[in-house]
């Protein structure tokens, strides 16, 4: 029996209307629905990451105010054993220009958040700021400074620029209107290039590392060309020697980084030991260190 036959067999108009409503609700329930999420991009424009709206793993806290972003940013850098950065107001102003362009031109965020090519009103200053920064876009009017900084540090490619050992200054801006929010943090303009540098995160003996959704990274910063990065082995164990399984990702473009992401949540308040054996252009490198998870 067809759906139409089933409906017509009903003698009451009210019954027919109820049947139609039930069928409508059924089909709406099975159809796929696009749900917008927070989108973030790194300065090299090579990756778009769809992120959860709220990141709940952060253990870093700073008072609200105009310097909150700098406090949060430097808390992560100091934890990683790096120098704090200072605010460059010119860089922050450039991002203010760019983020305001984005929220007035939401189609630009769909194409590339680092550029200003879709709508009129673009500026050279805004284009430069966007190209040098991690960006985040929220399809809603409510987004915070802390959410912005935390969500960038959560993902390896965004973390890479924020933990550059030669970064000395930065700028930040978060702009919102009644429909959208856009934020950026400059991770390229304040660089003072030096020889090859290495940064691991979590840092050696770091305490309070998030238990879930946080990759472990070994990053390399150099102006020299790197042809290949290969991983021989990665081992992560808890204090009892139990092996933790995970996935390995290698980046070798603007970002040069080995990433290990545990497949399951780590135990709370637990000491972990990790060692990585890799080769860069055929030259073996080894790194081992320990860290402790958050309660």
Task: Describe the protein's architecture and organization.
By secondary structure, this protein is α+β, with helices and mostly antiparallel strands. It folds into two domains: 67-186, Pathogenesis-related Protein p14a (3-Layer(aba) Sandwich); 197-293, Sandwich (Immunoglobulin-like), CATH 2.60.40. Helix content is 28%, strand content 30%. The chain contains eight helices and 15 strands. The strands form four sheets. The protein has a five-stranded antiparallel beta sheet with strand order 2-1-4-7-6, sandwiched between helices. Strands 8-10-13-12 form a four-stranded antiparallel beta sheet, covered by helices on one side. Strands 9-15-14-11 form a four-stranded mixed beta sheet, with no helix packed on it. Helix 3 runs parallel beside helix 7 and helix 4 (89-104) crosses helix 6 (124-131).
